[in-house]
Amino acid sequence: MLTDRGKVVGAELVPRKHVRPEFGDILIRQGDPSQRIVYTEPVNADYLLPVGSRDNLGLLLKAVPYIVYKRGAFGDWAQYAELFGMPFRLAKYKAYDNKTRNILEAAMRDMGSASYMVIPEEASVEIQAISGTGNNSGNYDMLRQACNEELAVLILGQTMTTTDGSSRAQSETHFKVEEQITLDDILFLEFVLNWAFKQMMIRHGCPLDGCTFHLPETEKLSKEVRLDMLLRINKEVAPIDPEYIAKEFDVPLLDKPTKIDKGNIENNKQKEAEKKEFNLIDDYYNCPHNHSHPAELTLADPDDNEVQMAFDNLTEAIYNASIPTDTSIPEPLYNALVKALTKDVSFDFANEEQEGEAFKAAIQNNIHAFSCAKSYTELMLMRQLLLDDKGDILPFHQFKDRVSGIYDKYNIAHLQAEYLHVIAAAQAAGQWNEIEANEGNMPYLRYLTANDDRVRETHRTLNNVVVPVNDPFWDTYYPPNGWRCRCDVAQITNLQAQKNKYSIKTGDDAGRLAKEALDNKKFFGKNFAKASDWFDATHPNFKGLDTTKLSAEKDYGIKPPKATTAPLPALSQDEFDQQWQTLTNGSTRADGFVWTDVLKTPLYADKKLYDHLIKNEKPKQPHYSVFNRAQATISQPDEIWFGWIESTKKGRLAKVHLKFYSDKLIIVFSDEQLNIISIYAAPLDTANHYRKGILLYRKK
Asked: For residue 223, what is the enclosing H or E element?
């Protein structure tokens, strides 16, 4: 900022490479966060006005690739012009006449910088253009023009007022598009002036109470047009403070930071049941610290985002009544949510022994169950928004406008928090294995926060608290301890604790310090490194839904199975014994073997399974007779379920692999410890008895 006798007379732009809007700071040295200016805190916040959202880096970021391509095209074009822009000279000499060759080479060099070649008369050289392009230089010009057009569309929204004006009618239409974009920018500037800027100036003593900034370009716009434009800006450009919308247009205050539901503004009210459901979820995710940060789940462009595509398809299916009204699990959205939550998540934190593999499988089952429940909740809420207050079906554009609020809450804001929770829990699990292995040499854990302005106060009180590894304290307060929690631990030796004069806390003393540290005591009061229910039944998405007892046809809308595979001949007991022995001999297990399923989960067979299979419970079709189909049922199943299966003796939770052969259904049961407990055949028309619970896999 340039001043002259106390007055601001100019300003210099801070180099953008030093500014980190996602953190709200300016780095003194690029790449060194240890020295920074935080412009969102006093005193800087009284003189610097951030505009837009922290995670929106503006048009410049989108424009950079085209600028780089364009610069490269010019460089290549210049090189092409240097090589081929001037006439090419060709000199020939008689073979073995080196004297003539030397004279020609000297003459070519002295004649200037144009390209030349000296070859024997007997040789031939051809310089060919790439077929189909005509003049090679046109490639560079085409790339330059394409970059110019993309930049024009990005900045102006059109090209005909800059690069193509052959049609007056089209040019006028394109100019209107440019004017609309300019008007949107002006209206957004007006919002900034009337809201954040005015409040800042009032704090500095300027008498602006009751004053309103109006720019000439917006004075003639009706209130409805201005509202419509602000809604579009909020949705596509930058967030508009809901308080400004409420005050300026006399409408109810809406939640932030989500997109504004235009249909609800027009009606000035919202269904109470819908609002209650939204608030239930919002309250669950609410915490003192809910800032975004770079580790967030990066959602792809809409065309590449499976969650967005699944949600859009579900919106159309609900409106067109193309899904049964009693179906509660939209399978495409459910599968997309599973992929989003496990994106880039490594589950290699447990050892490869059976206990560790069972722990990982339980976690993956839990994530599937949560995604299933989440998709169920979204479907139920979307159906509530289909009718207006009179009970009539809304026009599709209004219905789509309404459900966009559900998408923003559940599949952007909440999904990011859930993804970060899965990442943090996986990191905690991997870290805990190392902690237990090193406990003898390093018996203490030191609680660490991120130690910046974004740390919530309830977690800051635990910073540098040291507690023994084996203290029950860590069963409740091992991080993460809230949504988007960035806390960590450091394992230290007894000598390090003494050298740094740490006060060792244990039992109740440590617990009193952490009394308020949990954002949600029911959900976060556990050590996620030890627990496999990373999303437990206290989460509102599970309200009224037992995912272990869902059914294929009623809840998923999956039709009865069709035979897909030709049958194999039944085995005799001798043939079964021979196959079992071959598998056992080729295994490292003493009395059994391991098969790995399509989800890369190992399933364990032992002597108990062998004894079970040779029992003649069904003399006409003993269980061992279909043993030759079991491995294919596990490695190439048609469906995999995890749920509550009823039997003649008692029910139990089990993983069920199904394969639909042309003559019968093959079922492989395994328990929660991944032991295969039964293999047998059943008629195809009994399949729904086994198709229950969480659908882990379905062959497409």
From this structure: helix 223-236
Q: In sequence order, what are the residues at sequence separation of 6 or more whose Cβ sits closer than 8 angstroms to the Cβ of residue 365?
A: 642, 655, 694, 696
Contacts of 686 (CB under 8 A, 6+ apart): 665
How confident is the model over 60-111, as pLDDT tens digits?
Answer: 777 778 778 778 777 777 777 766 666 778 888 887 788 888 888 888 888 8
Q: Distance between alpha carbon 593 and the CA centroid of its chain, in Å?
A: 38
- Helix H or strand E encompassing 452: none
User: In whole angstroms, how far apart are CA 4 and each of 1, 10, 46, 179?
Assistant: 10, 9, 20, 38
C-alpha separations of 59 from 52, 193, 518, 625 in Å: 12, 21, 39, 66
pLDDT of res. 591: 84
- Partners of 116 in the beta sheet? 89
Alpha carbon 129 to chain centroid distance? 46
Lookup: tokens for 75: 């460089």
Mean pLDDT of the chain, nearest integer: 79
- Which uninterrupted H or E stretch holds 84? helix 58-84
Residue 253 neighbours by CB distance under 10 Å: 10
Average confidence (pLDDT) over 172-189: 57
Measure CA 212 to chain center. Answer: 41
Contact 174, 110 (CB under 8 A): no
Number of H helices, E strands in the chain: 23, 17
Q: Which residues are CB-contacts of 339 (< 8 A; sequence separation ≥ 6)?
A: 306
Give the DSSP letter string of 96-117.
Answer: T-HHHHHHHHHHHHHT-SS-EE
Q: Pick from 485, 495, 499, 490: which is nearest to 469 by CA? A: 490
CB under 8 Å to 159, separation ≥6 — which residues? 149, 152, 153, 174
Calculate the CA 620 to chain-centre distance: 52
Phi and psi at residue 175, to the nearest 5°: -65, -35
pLDDT recorded at residue 626: 93
At residue 183 the predicted structure's pLDDT band, cuts being 50, 70 and 90, is low
Q: Which of 71-75, 267-271, 688-692 has the lowest mean pLDDT?
A: 267-271
CA–CA distance, 699 with 331 (Å, rounded to integer): 13
The label of the residue with tokens 């310090």 reads 513
Q: What is the pTM of this model?
A: 0.61
Please state whether beta strands 116-120 and 89-93 pair in parallel, antiparallel, or not at all (unpaired).
parallel
Place of tokens 């244990």: 506
Q: pLDDT digit string (tens) for 475-517? A: 988 999 888 888 999 999 999 999 988 889 888 888 887 777 7
Among the listed residues 661, 669, 700, 664, the one whose alpha carbon sits nearest the alpha carbon of residue 685: 664
- 656 forms beta bridges with 641, 669
How far is CA 20 from each of CA 30, 39, 50, 56, 61, rounded to the nearest angstrom? 10, 10, 11, 11, 13
DSSP characters for 236-301?
HT-PPPHHHHHHHHT-----SSSPP-HHHHHHT---HHHHHHHHHHHHHH--S-----TTS--PPP
Nearest CA among 185, 223, 193 for reference residue 211: 193
Q: Residue 17 corresponds to which tokens in the numbers above?
A: 């490479």
